Amino acid sequence: MFKKRNILLTIGIILFIIIIGSLIYLNQSYSPLTGNQQYLEKEDIKEYDRYYRFGTKSNNNAVIFYPGGKVEEEAYAPLCDKINQAGFSVFLVKMPFNLAIFDKDRASNIIDEYKEEFDNWYLIGHSLGGAMAASYLAEKDINYYSGLVFLSSYPPENVNFNSNNIRVLSISASEDEVMNKVKFIDSKENLPSDTIFHTIDGGNHAGFGNYGPQKGDGKRTISREKQWEITANLIIDFINEIK
């Protein structure tokens, strides 16, 4: 009886440690840098329970943005702001525990609410956000979307877009040491033959957002502002070509 009680106690301690460790991990994320708030205080930016909306005027084109894993969504405000300045409404999604894997279908809520306002929808995802965006599209009505943009990301192995009509843009960075380069190359087989690939010279993984250095990442040789500018211009050109 004493031995059994010790075993149960040991199991309880292990479970307690696992739970505490998981809670600590889930509540640790990369936060936006100082000064980022200015991008969220503009008059035409509205905050809702599950997303920010950049641009309140309807122009028939909307972008839904999935943040990277463990990155607070506000860190992507500068990039979303630049895309919005080109005339596209942008919906920056808030994810549970800052992990898109916990609710990859959140774009559906936005589509349901605004489908009468916009005809053309585009989905963008950084890192894990891109993988979950691709997984979401593979399981939902892909016909709602005109384009998919990966930022230092790629689709999961079980997702294949070769038989779909969706247009794809893949933007990576030369100094990115976080993204798995081997899987990135292998994933090209599952993307449409007309997928556009672009590598930002001097950019890194964290440079798509405004949250500072990311563990394991390479060192940028260009400014964050330059990386945002290049990224936004590539996305804007991509959308304009499609619409």
Tell me what the structure shows.
The structure is a single chain. The chain is α/β, with parallel strands linked by helices and 243 residues long. The protein has a single domain (31-242), classed as Rossmann fold, CATH 3.40.50. It is 33% helix and 18% strand. It has 6 helices and 8 strands. The protein has an 8-stranded mixed sheet with strand order 1-2-4-3-5-6-7-8, sandwiched between helices. It is globular.
Short description:
Helix content is 33%, strand content 18%.
What is the element layout, followed by pairings?
Layout: H1 2-26, E1 45-47, E2 51-54, E3 61-66, H2 77-85, E4 89-93, H3 106-114, E5 120-126, H4 128-139, E6 145-151, E7 167-173, H5 181-187, E8 196-200, H6 224-242
Parallel strand pairs: 3-4, 3-5, 5-6, 6-7, 7-8
Antiparallel strand pairs: 1-2, 2-4
Helix pairs in contact: 2-6
CATH superfamily: Alpha/Beta hydrolase fold, catalytic domain
Q: What helical percentage do the residues reach?
A: 25-40%
Number of extended strands: 8
Q: Give the N-terminus to C-terminus distance in angstroms.
A: 72 Å
CATH architecture: 3-Layer(aba) Sandwich
Give the overall form.
Answer: globular
Question: Which CATH class is shown?
Answer: Alpha Beta
Number of helices: 6
Please give the oligomerization state of what you see: single chain
> Strand order across the biggest sheet?
1-2-4-3-5-6-7-8
